[in-house]
Amino acid sequence: MRNTAKLIATAASFAVLIGGTSLIPQAASAAGHADMVKKGKEVAFNRKKGNCLACHAMDDGTSPGDIGPPLVAMKARFPDKKKLRAQIWDAEVANPDTRMPPFGKHKIISESDIDAIVEYLYTL
Predict the structure, then answer these.
(1) Domains of the chain and any CATH numbers
(2) Does the pLDDT at position 2 exceed 70?
(3) In contact, 99 and 68? CB cutoff 8 Å
(4) Could you give the CA distance from residue 98 to residue 67 in angstroms, rounded to a whole number?
(5) Do residues 114 and 88 lie in contact, with contact meaning Cβ atoms separated by under 8 Å?
(6) How many CB atoms lie within 10 A of CB 107?
(7) pTM score, two decimals?
(8) Which of 28, 60, 20 is nearest to 42 (CA)?
(9) Residue 24 has what pLDDT?
(10) Any idea what the Cα angle at residue 49 is, between residues 47 and 50, rounded to 5°?
């Protein structure tokens, strides 16, 4: 009887230990995503980098331009993140007459900055 109780206690402890450690990667992942979103907003608002506000109204940005469409409901407009990223990379592919610069193709901003902007825009 004692062995059974000890075995159950050991199994329960093991289950709690395994369950608890599985939350650590999720928490780290959520923190990493939040950092990526924050970086994306910083790049998008930075007048020397993404400069999205020069053409787009978005979020809480001040003095937005109106050349491009407002950046709202981005998940609905771009259900596939890859298409949104491609649009930022080189908008001329989808619209040869666009005024949007090909940020990736012309290396205006880095790959990691483009990825961060995409993550940020997906929060809008």
Answers:
(1) 35-121 (1.10.760.10)
(2) no
(3) yes
(4) 10
(5) yes
(6) 9
(7) 0.75
(8) 60
(9) 53
(10) 85
Using CA atoms, how far residue 87 sits from 20, 49, 69, 81, 90, in Å, is 40, 17, 13, 10, 5
Buried b (16+ CB within 10 A) or exposed e, 19-49: eeeeeeeeeeeeeeeeebbebbbebbbeeeb
Sign of dihedral through CA atoms 34, 84, 103, 111? positive
pLDDT tens readout for residues 34-67: 999 999 999 999 999 989 999 999 999 989 999 9
91 token code pair: 């908008």
Calpha distance 38→44 (Å, rounded): 10
User: What is the SS3 string spanning 71-101?
Assistant: ECCHHHHCCCHHHHHHHHHCCCCCCCCCCCC
- Residue matched to tokens 């907003």: 41
Neighbours of 65 (CB within 10 A): 13
